[in-house]
């Protein structure tokens, strides 16, 4: 055994913060993303997501429901991105028309996924934002 | 008395959430369930119906407009 040679450390899993006021939606998204090798955090509303983002946790991608009570997903994402310009944001909503009317263009690093999402559509949307490919690179 | 059509976006939003849950979990189960499971054919029917309901959504939204 050569001294100083080590097995390369696998890259740390990317962290996705799911923000949705519907618990079963968070659970479904968590199961799908964990199957893809991501580390998943959850928040039940925008205010909690803002608190979590100030904790000592680096979030790579924010999955934001647009329709939430108190703090809407878009405003939450705007505040989080003000502090983290490289944060990727996946907006999830059933109201496609509303989003497209209000935001005909998305910023770099943002994407939109229509509900109801599927295993494939969510997996691909997250991978595209984080890696630029439909599937994450093999570990 | 409020116009029922005022509630249409909210009803469709909730319907889409329920559908997302049904489709996501049936997707996951289809991936995880062994090919030779006696329950696989039943699950495949649920999975197929979920996808069919999803395909009907644009028609449903048109009816509400």
Descriptive report:
The complex is a heterodimer of chains A (139) and B (65). Chain A is of the alpha/beta class. Chain A is 38% helix and 19% strand. Chain A has helices spanning 23-35, 46-54, 73-83, 96-102, 119-131, and strands spanning 15-19, 39-43, 61-65, 88-93, 110-114. Chain A has a 5-stranded parallel sheet, with helices on both faces. The longest helix of chain A has 13 residues, at 23-35. The two termini of chain A are 24 Å apart. The model of chain A has no long low-confidence stretch (mean pLDDT 86). Chain B is an all-alpha fold and 65 residues long. Chain B contains 2 helices and no strands. Chain B has helices at residues 8-32, 40-64. In chain B, α1 runs antiparallel to α2. Chain B starts with 7 loop residues before the first helix and ends with a helix. At the A-B interface, α1 and α5 of A face α1 of B.
Summarize the entry for a quick read.
The complex is a heterodimer of chains A (139) and B (65). Chain A is built from five helices and five strands. Chain A has helices spanning 23-35, 46-54, 73-83, 96-102, 119-131, and strands at residues 15-19, 39-43, 61-65, 88-93, 110-114.
Quick tags:
heterodimer; A: about 140 residues; alpha/beta; 5-stranded parallel β-sheet; 5 strands; about 20% strand; globular; B: about 60 residues; mainly alpha; 2 helices; about 0% strand; elongated
Which range does the strand content of chain B fall in?
under 5%
User: What does the overall shape of chain A look like?
Assistant: globular
pLDDT < 50 stretches of chain A: none
What is the CA-CA span between the terminal residues of chain A? 24 Å
Largest sheet of chain B: none
Mean pLDDT across every amino acid position of chain B: 87
Give Rg of chain B in angstroms. Answer: 16 Å
Helix fraction of chain B by DSSP (H/I, runs of at least 4): over 70%
- For this structure, the quaternary state is heterodimer
Query: How large is the count of helical segments of chain A?
Result: 5
Structural Rg of chain A: 16 Å
Unreliable spans of chain B are: none
Number of helices of chain B: 2
Q: What is the molecular shape of chain B?
A: elongated
The biggest beta sheet of chain A, please?
5 strands, parallel
């Amino acid at each position: 055994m050569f001294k100083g040679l080590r097995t390369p450390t696998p890259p740390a899993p990317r962290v996705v913060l799911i923000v949705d006021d519907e618990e079963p939606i968070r659970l479904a998204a968590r199961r799908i993303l964990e199957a893809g090798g991501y580390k998943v955090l959850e928040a039940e509303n925008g205010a909690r997501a803002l608190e979590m983002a100030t904790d000592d946790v680096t979030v790579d991608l924010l999955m934001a429901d647009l329709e939430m009570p108190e703090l809407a997903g878009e405003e939450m994402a705007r505040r989080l991105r003000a502090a983290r310009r490289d944060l990727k944001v996946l907006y999830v909503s059933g109201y496609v028309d509303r989003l497209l009317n209000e935001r005909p263009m998305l910023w770099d690093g943002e994407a939109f996924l229509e509900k109801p999402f599927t295993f494939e559509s969510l997996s691909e949307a997250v991978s595209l934002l984080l890696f630029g490919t439909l599937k994450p690179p093999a570990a | 008395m409020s116009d029922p059509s005022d509630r249409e976006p909210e009803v469709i939003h909730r319907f889409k959430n329920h559908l997302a849950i049904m489709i996501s979990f049936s997707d996951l189960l289809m991936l995880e369930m062994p090919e030779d499971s006696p329950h696989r054919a039943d699950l495949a029917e649920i999975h197929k119906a979920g996808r069919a309901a999803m395909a009907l959504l644009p028609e449903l939204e048109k009816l509400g407009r």
